[in-house]
Write the structure tokens for this entry.
Amino acid sequence: MLSQQQTAPAPPTSAGWTAARPATTSAAPQNRANAPLAWHAAACAAYAQAGAGAGATALRTELAARVHALTGCAIPHGATVTDHDARRATVAVDGWIFQLQGRDLVLLRPCAHCGGALFASPPLASQADLGYALCDWRPYHAWCEPVDPASADW
């Protein structure tokens, strides 16, 4: 196995010259059972210093601020549920479910026909977007979509 510092010669190119390129290394270093590699230790230390829960706290804070900006409702600290790995934070406000999905704030609503699974609205960037999601947007499962009588086969 080649170390990270070694290079392997590249095959000749169409121009006839070769260039040194980093060799491919395996994903599992040989010394994993021994002392960790310097870059590995540095990354783990930075993560520990930042705090493992810092990402969840940032999600909660951003969700609370954005929902407050749209609704005027203050969000208590313990009212949100976060999934740091999926970059999601969710909160219910007066029965309406808001979710921060990455950078997008959405409203979750059940199927308008059967009340089943929750669907995410288009991203909410303004009060007008929120108004649309509350008043006019009606999500449906594919099998629950209302049929237009004019286009139905009789």
